[in-house]
Task: inverse folding
C-alpha cells in the first residue's frame, strides 16, 4: 500500500516538473498581462504616466457623478451607451458570422469528403482565403467594395441588381453586413477543414450498414453523420466564437470608426491609445475578457461538450 | 512594419553611440500623403551624403488619427527605435513631455520661421517641434467646367451646392455618369473635424470650443451648417464620402469625376502633375463662406520633433535642422506644394514661378483658425472624436443636426467637467 502511494507521489512530482516550465511561461505571457490590465482598470492610469497610477476603486466601471446640488447621474463603463452599443455590435457580428461559417463550412466539408478527381487540389485551394492575412484581405475587399472604383458595384450594376453604386463600407446600414461578409468569406475554409477532419474520423462501415438497410441519405445525414461529426463541429464553433468576440483587424481596416461597427476591442483600443483614458480602456478590456469567458463557459456547459475525454475511457 | 529590423537598427545605433565620430543610423517616422515620402527621401539622400549618417523612413498610415495612437504607444514605451517624429500641428500639447526642447538648438535660426507656427509648437516655453510645413485647405475647382457652363466661382456654400449640382447633372446627361459635384473628407477621423469646424465657423457658428476653452457649439448657425452638409451626401457628394480621407477625395477629383474638392495644399502638385488627367484645368481658391459668415480655413501642417528617448539626439537635431533649412523647404514647396515655414520663402522667385499659389496663400495661412488642441489639452482627441462623431451622424442621416449639436454640447460639457 505504502509502496503504491510512494509511486503515485513520485509520478505526481514528475508531472509537476514537466508542467512547471509551461505554467511559468503561461503566467508570464498570459496571466501577468491580464492581471496588469485588470489592475489598471481600477486605477487612474494615463499612458503618459503608467507608473504613477493610483487605485481609485470602481470609478471606471460605475460611479455616482454628483452635480453638487443633490442631483447627479451614474457615470462609468457600465452605463456607457457607446460601450453597450459596441457589445451589441460584437455579439451580433459573432453570432451571424459564426452561424454562416458553420453552415457553409459543413456544406463544403461534405463535398470535400466525397471522392472525386482533383480532390487534393480543391482542398488546398479552398484554404486560400484563410491563408491571406486579415489586414490584406480587408484592404482588398475595401477596394472591391469601393463606391467609385469597386468591382462589386460594377458587377451588380451590370446585371441590373442595383441602379446606383452602394457605399458598402461607409453607410451605417451596410457596413456591418460588409464586415460579416468578408469575415465569412475568410473563415469558412477554417470551419470546413475542422469539420472535414471530423467527417474523416467516422468509420465507413456505419455507412455501409445504413446502405444495406436502405436508409435514405437525408436520414443518414441526420442520424449518423451529424451526431458523429458534432464534437468536431462544436470545437470549431468555440474556436471561431472566441475569435469573433475579440474581432479587431477586419473592422478596423474595412470600415470608418463609427458607432455602426465599433466592436468591443475597437472601443478599448480607442480609449487606451487615442484618448487619454488608459484606465477606462483597461476597464473595457477587462469586461471584454469577462464577456468572452462567460459566453465560452456557457456554451461549453450548454452543449455538454466533452473536454476531459470522459467518453473515451 | 519590420519590428526586428527596428530592434536591430536600435541595437546597432546603441552600440555605436559610444563613439562621438560615428555614422549614426537614424529613423524618422513620417505619415505621408501624396508625394511627401518621395520628396523626403530625396532630402534624406542629400543629408546622408553630406553627413555620412543613414536615415530610414518608417512609414505610417494616411490618417493622422491612426498615426497618433501608434506614436503614443511608442513614446509611452520610451522606444529608442524612432529618433525623429513628424507631428501634426495639433499634437504638441498632448505629447510635449516626450520630446527634446529645441529652443537652444535652434536659437540661431528660429527668427527666420513664421512666428505663429513657432508659437503653435511652443508648450510652456518649450519648443516641442521645429515647424516643417504649414497648410490651409483650398477649394480646388475645375475651371474648364465652370467656363463650359458659364458659372461664376461660388462664394458661399449654398452657391457651391447649387453650382455643383447643376454642373453634375449636366455632365451626367452628357454621358459622364460618374460625375460628382463636391468631394471632401467625410470619414470619421480628424479630417472630418477640420471640415466640420470650417462649415460651422464660416457660417458664423464659432469654433465649437474657443481659445479660452468655452464650449460655443450650441447655436443655430452650427445646426444650419451641418444641415447643409448633410444635404450633400448622395446628392452632390458620393455616398461613400462617409469613408473618404484626403487621398480618397483626391482619387475621385483627379480622375476627373468631381467639380469641386476641399483638400490640403499637397494635392496641388499632384492634380497639376504630368500624369494627371486634369492638369491645366484645375485652380484653387479659398473655401466658400456660409450664408452668415466669412471663409474659414483650419490651420494644418506638420512639424519635426526629436524624441527624448533617442540615442542619437545630436544627429537627430542636425537632421531636423537640415530638413527645415531653406534648400529643403524650397524643394518641398516646389515638389509637393507644401507651404514653407520660413518667412522669406513666400517671396522666393522660384517658388512663385513653379507653385504660384504659395505666395498668394500666405494671408490664408495667417488667417487660419486653430483646432482647440491648446485649450482642451489632454482631452483634445476625445473632443475631436465627439466633433467628428456628431458631424458623421448628421451626414449619414442617423441623427438630425439639432439633436447632434445638442448632444455634442452635452458630451463636451461633461468631458470638460470643471476645467479642461
Result:
Amino acid at each position: 500500500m505504502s509502496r503504491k502511494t510512494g509511486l503515485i507521489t513520485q509520478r505526481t512530482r514528475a508531472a509537476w516538473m514537466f508542467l512547471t516550465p509551461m505554467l511559468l511561461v503561461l503566467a508570464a505571457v498570459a496571466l501577468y498581462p491580464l492581471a496588469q490590465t485588470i489592475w489598471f482598470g481600477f486605477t487612474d492610469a494615463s499612458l503618459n504616466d503608467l507608473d504613477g497610477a493610483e487605485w481609485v476603486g470602481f470609478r471606471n466601471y460605475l460611479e455616482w457623478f454628483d452635480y453638487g446640488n443633490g442631483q447627479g447621474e451614474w457615470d462609468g463603463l457600465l452605463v456607457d451607451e457607446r460601450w453597450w452599443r459596441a457589445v451589441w455590435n460584437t455579439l451580433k457580428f459573432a453570432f451571424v458570422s459564426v452561424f454562416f461559417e458553420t453552415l457553409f463550412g459543413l456544406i463544403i466539408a461534405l463535398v470535400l469528403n466525397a471522392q472525386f478527381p482533383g480532390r487534393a487540389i480543391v482542398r488546398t485551394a479552398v484554404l486560400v482565403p484563410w491563408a491571406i492575412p486579415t489586414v490584406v484581405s480587408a484592404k482588398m475587399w475595401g477596394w472591391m467594395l469601393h463606391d467609385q472604383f469597386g468591382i462589386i458595384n460594377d458587377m451588380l450594376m451590370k446585371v441590373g441588381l442595383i441602379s446606383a453604386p452602394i457605399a458598402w463600407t461607409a453607410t451605417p446600414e451596410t457596413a456591418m453586413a460588409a464586415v460579416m461578409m468578408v469575415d465569412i468569406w475568410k473563415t469558412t475554409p477554417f470551419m470546413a477543414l475542422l469539420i472535414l477532419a471530423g467527417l474523416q474520423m467516422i468509420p465507413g462501415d456505419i455507412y455501409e450498414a445504413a446502405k444495406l438497410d436502405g436508409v435514405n441519405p437525408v436520414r443518414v445525414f441526420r442520424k449518423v453523420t451529424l451526431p458523429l461529426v458534432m464534437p468536431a463541429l462544436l470545437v470549431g464553433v468555440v474556436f471561431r466564437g472566441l475569435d469573433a468576440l475579440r474581432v479587431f483587424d477586419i473592422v478596423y481596416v474595412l470600415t470608418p470608426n463609427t458607432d455602426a461597427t465599433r466592436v468591443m476591442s475597437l472601443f478599448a483600443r480607442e480609449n487606451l491609445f487615442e484618448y487619454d483614458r488608459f484606465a477606462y480602456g483597461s476597464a473595457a478590456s477587462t469586461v471584454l475578457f469577462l464577456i468572452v469567458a462567460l459566453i465560452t463557459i456557457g456554451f461549453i456547459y450548454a452543449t455538454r461538450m466533452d473536454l476531459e475525454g470522459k467518453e473515451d475511457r | 512594419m519590420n519590428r526586428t529590423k527596428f530592434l536591430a537598427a536600435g541595437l546597432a545605433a546603441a552600440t555605436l553611440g559610444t563613439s562621438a565620430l560615428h555614422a549614426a543610423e537614424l529613423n524618422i517616422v513620417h505619415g505621408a500623403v501624396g508625394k511627401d515620402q518621395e520628396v523626403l527621401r530625396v532630402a534624406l539622400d542629400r543629408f546622408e551624403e553630406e553627413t555620412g549618417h543613414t536615415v530610414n523612413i518608417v512609414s505610417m498610415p494616411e490618417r493622422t488619427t491612426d498615426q497618433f495612437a501608434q506614436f503614443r504607444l511608442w513614446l509611452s514605451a520610451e522606444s529608442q527605435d524612432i529618433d525623429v517624429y513628424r507631428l501634426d500641428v495639433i499634437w504638441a500639447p498632448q505629447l510635449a513631455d516626450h520630446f527634446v526642447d529645441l529652443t537652444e538648438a535652434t536659437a540661431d535660426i528660429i527668427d527666420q520661421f513664421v512666428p505663429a507656427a513657432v508659437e503653435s509648437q511652443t508648450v510652456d516655453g518649450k519648443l516641442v517641434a521645429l515647424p516643417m510645413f504649414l497648410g490651409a485647405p483650398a477649394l480646388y475647382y475645375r475651371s474648364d467646367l465652370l467656363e463650359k457652363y458659364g458659372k461664376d466661382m461660388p462664394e458661399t456654400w449654398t452657391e457651391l451646392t447649387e453650382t455643383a449640382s447643376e454642373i453634375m447633372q449636366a455632365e451626367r446627361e452628357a454621358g459622364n455618369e460618374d460625375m460628382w459635384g463636391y468631394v471632401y473628407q467625410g470619414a470619421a477621423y480628424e479630417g472630418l473635424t477640420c471640415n466640420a469646424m470650417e462649415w460651422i465657423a464660416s457660417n458664423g457658428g464659432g469654433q465649437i470650443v474657443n481659445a479660452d476653452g468655452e464650449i460655443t457649439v450650441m447655436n443655430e448657425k452650427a445646426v444650419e451648417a451641418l444641415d447643409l452638409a448633410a444635404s450633400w451626401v448622395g446628392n452632390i457628394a458620393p455616398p461613400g464620402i462617409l469613408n473618404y480621407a484626403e487621398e480618397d477625395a483626391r482619387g475621385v477629383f483627379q480622375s476627373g469625376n468631381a467639380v469641386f474638392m476641399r483638400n490640403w495644399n499637397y494635392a496641388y502638385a499632384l492634380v497639376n502633375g504630368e500624369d494627371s488627367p486634369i492638369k491645366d484645368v484645375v485652380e484653387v481658391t479659398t473655401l466658400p463662406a456660409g450664408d452668415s459668415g466669412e471663409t474659414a480655413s483650419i490651420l494644418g501642417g506638420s512639424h519635426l520633433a526629436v524624441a527624448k528617448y533617442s540615442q542619437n539626439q545630436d544627429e537627430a537635431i542636425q537632421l531636423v535642422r537640415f530638413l527645415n533649412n531653406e534648400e529643403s523647404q524650397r524643394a518641398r514647396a516646389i515638389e509637393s506644394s507644401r507651404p514653407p515655414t520660413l518667412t522669406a520663402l513666400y517671396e522666393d522667385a522660384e517658388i512663385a514661378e513653379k507653385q504660384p499659389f504659395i505666395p498668394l496663400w500666405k494671408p490664408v495661412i495667417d488667417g487660419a483658425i486653430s483646432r482647440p488642441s491648446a485649450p482642451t489639452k489632454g482631452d483634445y482627441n476625445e473632443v475631436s472624436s465627439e466633433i467628428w462623431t456628431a458631424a458623421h451622424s448628421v451626414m449619414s442621416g442617423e441623427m438630425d443636426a439639432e439633436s447632434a449639436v445638442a448632444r455634442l454640447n452635452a458630451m463636451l460639457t461633461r468631458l470638460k467637467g470643471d476645467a479642461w
Remarks:
- The domain at 83-276+294-306 of chain A is CATH 1.10.3720.10 (MetI-like fold).
